[in-house]
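Before relying on records like the one below, remember that each one covers exactly one chain. Contacts with other chains, cofactors or solvent are not represented anywhere in the record.
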Amino acid sequence: MVYISILLCLILFCAKITLQEPEISIDTCPSVNESKEKEFDCQMSATKERTFICIKPDAVQRGLIGKIIERFEQRGYKLVAMKMVKATKGHLEIHYQELQGKPFFKDLVDYMSSGPVVAMVWEGLDVVKQGRQMLGATNPLNSMPGTIRGDFSIQTGRNIVHGSDSLPSAEREIAHWFKSEELCEWNAATTTWYCMMGDESDSSEDYFVVSTRHNFNPKPHLVTVVKSDTGFGFNVKGQVSEGGQLRSINGELYAPLQHVSAVLRGGAAAKAGLLKGDRILQVNGVDVEGATHKQVVELIKDGGDKLSLVVISVDAVDAERFENGLTEESCASCRQLLKIHFYKCEDNNVFAFLYDYSEKRSLPITIPSYQTITANGERFVAYNVHMAGRHLGSRRYNEFVQLHNLLKHEFIDFDFPKLPSKWPFSLSEQQLDARRRGLESYLEKICAVRVIADSDIMQEFLMEDSLSECAVADVHIRILLPDGNSLLLNIKRHCTAIQLYMATQKRLNMSPEASRYCALFEMTECGFERKLADDEYPHALYIQNYSSAASSCILLRKWIFDNDREIELCERDRLFKELCFWQAVAGVNGGLVSAKEKMFQLKALQSIERADKYLTMVRAMDGYNRIVFPHCGCSSRKDGDIILTVEFSQLTIRACDYEGNLQEEELIFDWSDILEYNVIDNGAIFAFEYARSQKKPKSVKLSTQFAMYMNFCFSRILEERERRAGMNFLKESC
């Protein structure tokens, strides 16, 4: 009996399902709506993800607060809390509790408590992960250009900003820095457009729905829309320039048409029968074939509460075709937030958005030459791409074709110039040069449009990577000499500073003795010259500074502090003496050496034939063989900065305000007072310890982007002083 009962229950259950199937197949709207609502709730919770961002004391002092906030706002994230505070050490020890026990923990807490910080909470889709990517690597030298640390930290130094590394960390840090009532809930003007976008959605695929196709009409037909409480309830996209090539729509040729990209569920347009993908021929009786997007929007706005459209419906495939690629900047995996062109009515009904191609600029990009490369058993031609005369890298023709296709897919409504045509046979020298000129013209035209030039597609093409077939090609780099002339060397793109210096030595035929007292330097944005570390990549610095007035930021300079040792070398090595002479001339003319009333005498001696007399006079002046670092923060000073000066005889710390204006307080140290020195906090802080007259040792910590260069100077001076002491000892022994 039990088995019979179970069998009867199963039969009745199956029968019930069978009876209900027609009802489900006829009306799927409830399940679709329920699915949409669940998807909406899921995506809204993802959009509500929050992260903690803290702008560190060094960035506050450098005035970078606005620029960092701008990066997050441009990306589309929402600021829900912000305050400037001077955090206590106890507060910071709790914040960095996961790092307790690390050797740098105390230094990190001291650094973060040395000045005010700006604590912020940002909200948005995947904001924790994307925020970390926007910040860049902890070590600025490993950060890519375009990241916050990559753009604002020139060398291993201050890393500017902190960001949560996971959702649990973000929740803990937000609760630690902010009370719940300090977090502001608000809606941005574009919330309904951004909040529901998945990784593969376009601008309105989730908020708007594709209307059912029972109103499909492939011929021109009239649709009348009466505005409701939600506006007209549809979205328009299309070209931003007037005219254009004729296109076939349902077998007929038309000038470029604006189209309906989305229809609001239950809105006025949906009730009137307007479909997603409909091409617009007329607006309120006005022909809009070939019209701009702005013209169509203005006609819609001017029509009042009643809108008459003549449209052509297209099939579902064509309706979706023109939506792809336009709004990838809204996705969680977006490449970057590009310029978007919004049009909005007074009733807050957003009609459309599109890339804004109106902002133009002139980039000095050229392809002056090409080279033949052999790699992986293949021989091919690569075209040398230059920016402001600096060799960015080399690309072969098929890489230009790939770039063209990627850009056309991304910016589908832009009228791209033509690439030089393909040719199946070997090209002559004349044909290669014609192709070079054509490619140069192509780059000039597309880079003149800011939104295209700033896109990741374009930036990745210009900043050649190691995976490119042309990565083995040589690049040109220019090195400025003290006399104002320059060397142009061919190197590998990832050549290190020590490798480049060896090539420079060889080109100048420098003696081994002279080469030990010279080095490569970088001219930074503030005009300060810093020595390159042996493992740095000079070409990366060279191309990043293409906007500077100088032809190069890489310099050859002497690297010596001991005047007596310099005199000995100048007597034996003519090339080294010439380098010292021209560098002394530049120092006097630039104000680094104080000539005062002797300037006229020096001008009279300013020729290479009188180099000995000139150098003898300059060596006795204040500032010769002295390095004065830009002002920076100091752990021992609460109100203001300090200026560090190093020379062979002594070390000086001079007080100044936050703008670098000198004040009276000054400390002078003998080098014998220095007990130890090092770089800490990932290169953000230079620290040294000193002791005077058998007193208790004290430490000084300097927050500077030139911490590594300070370390180089300390090591060099102490090495030269040790050598001098050894020489004096030998003389006394004799």
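Confidence is low (pLDDT under 50) at residues 10-46, 190-212, 323-353.
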